[in-house]
Amino acid sequence: MASKLSWLQSRAVEASRLAYKEGGKYVKQLVEQNKHHVQEPATAEKCLLLSKQLFYTRLASIPRRYEAFWKELDQLKQTWKNSQPNEMNAEDAKTAALFGLELLVCCWAGKVVGRGFTFTGYYV
């Protein structure tokens, strides 16, 4: 156990050295590649405007996402109703599993929001 811990520690030190040495180059390259996304002048007012635009754009997309959710649920119901259990293929099973996971995540997010964005309880 101690040898694995020392090995893990040496690997972490090696990774941090690599990140320190190459991180600056990577960030500069990333900024250069994406400088067309940068807003000039970079002021607090511009940041506030962009954050408001993002918020209201997301808010405006809720009805479309809500309709898509119910449409997806109806499709899943029809698929479930029209097929026999032994006729269900892997793709239908994956779709049902992903839909169930989506519902679980939505319920979990609702719980977190309801608690005032505190992460306590069974899901941590």
TrEMBL record:
<keyword id="KW-0066">ATP synthesis</keyword>
<protein>
    <submittedName>
        <fullName>Uncharacterized protein</fullName>
    </submittedName>
</protein>
<dbReference type="GO" id="GO:0031966">
    <property type="term" value="C:mitochondrial membrane"/>
</dbReference>
<dbReference type="GO" id="GO:0015986">
    <property type="term" value="P:proton motive force-driven ATP synthesis"/>
</dbReference>
<keyword id="KW-0406">Ion transport</keyword>
<dbReference type="GO" id="GO:0045259">
    <property type="term" value="C:proton-transporting ATP synthase complex"/>
</dbReference>
<keyword id="KW-0813">Transport</keyword>
<dbReference type="InterPro" id="IPR006808">
    <property type="entry name" value="ATP_synth_F0_gsu_mt"/>
</dbReference>
<keyword id="KW-0138">CF(0)</keyword>
<comment type="similarity">
    <text>Belongs to the ATPase g subunit family.</text>
</comment>
<keyword id="KW-0472">Membrane</keyword>
<dbReference type="GO" id="GO:0015078">
    <property type="term" value="F:proton transmembrane transporter activity"/>
</dbReference>
<keyword id="KW-0375">Hydrogen ion transport</keyword>
<dbReference type="Pfam" id="PF04718">
    <property type="entry name" value="ATP-synt_G"/>
</dbReference>
<keyword id="KW-0496">Mitochondrion</keyword>
